[in-house]
Amino acid sequence: MRLLVEQFRSELVVDALRQIRPTLGGLVPTMIIDLLAMPGVGPPDFASLRTVVGGATAVDPALILDMEAKPGVTVIGAYGQSEGPAMIASSLEDSVDVRMRTLGRCLAGRDFCTRDRSGAIVRVDAEGELCVRGPLTMSGYLRPDGSIDPAVDAGGWRGTGDLCTMTADGVITFKGRIREVVIRGGLKRPGASSCWRLSGGGAGSGCNIGCMDWVRTTDGPSPRRRICSP
Predict the structure, then answer these.
(1) Using one digit for the tens of pLDDT, what is the confidence trace for 11-57?
(2) Half-sphere exposure of 157 (CA within 13 A, CB side)
(3) Is residue 18 part of a domain?
């Protein structure tokens, strides 16, 4: 049996968990956060779940631990785009570290590589743009005049726009998005710096917001930081 919720509302999903007792759920991180924060929701409500598939964005390892604190629940990740769905996933057989801190392994049927800004393939474990090619990758975007704006290069590779590393056995770790890299004495990722600054304690959450710097436009966006107390 498959149950699709037309529009996500925490109370609807909790009702489904209580009444239908599904064994597998597909939830993005914000949905998991909302469910765990609902008053009156506890471990018995998740008793039927065996697997939660998360994705759509990088999943905080602490959130995975919170979800797996429910007896019997295992969280696995999935990664894809509209232009190239279902590229990468972790599995129930993967270690906790792989499931918590990586996107998982490349799925069969396509080729993957990580490339630098010049287009050269980088070495194993080095950071580069994740690129994919294969039959499940879209060829291009339809223009108003009926022509196709290619979504792949001459070699058939599509750049995802995501910075990743790849191990020798195909485990992919997400590092950030190219468009969010800030150029200030080197390449800085707002997400990474936020996590580093918040790990010391004292703040509940925070984010870096890229804003156009009208003084130094050639250097890219200038970050503005917001920090929220607990």
Answers:
(1) 999 998 999 999 999 988 888 889 988 999 988 999 999 999 987 66
(2) 15
(3) no
